[in-house]
Amino acid sequence: QVQLVESGGGVVQAGASLRLSCAASGRNFGSDTLGWFRQAPGKEREVVATIIWISGRTYYADSVKGRFTISRNYANKTVYLQLNSLKPEDTAVYFCAARMPYAREYDSWGQGAQVTVSS
Length: 119
Description:
The chain is an all-beta fold. Helix content is 0%, strand content 54%. The protein contains no helices and eleven strands. It has strands spanning 2-7, 10-13, 18-26, 33-39, 46-52, 58-60, 68-73, 78-83, 92-99, 108-109, 113-118. A hairpin with a 5-residue loop joins strand 5 (46-52) and strand 6. The radius of gyration is 13 Å and the shape is globular.
């Protein structure tokens, strides 16, 4: 398993930016997929963005395309989510997660970071 620790959440006004970090420890990533998810009050958890560790290939939910950027740093084994042009509907707890190659489910999750966007 992998231990994941998120940081960087906060309270901002609409239009502002934040950067979330997810520091990983444990197994070495190869073709693992690292993902950012979010869950707003009363809503189901949804995927925001994912990145394949070795290739850097990314995926974004339509709702965040052009505003959010996922990236990773090999040296410090950290995954980032840059959130720009934030909207009140982006308010949620953001989680990072790791999924092994060919696995159907994400097996490791962080504790979450609260992002609150006021209008």
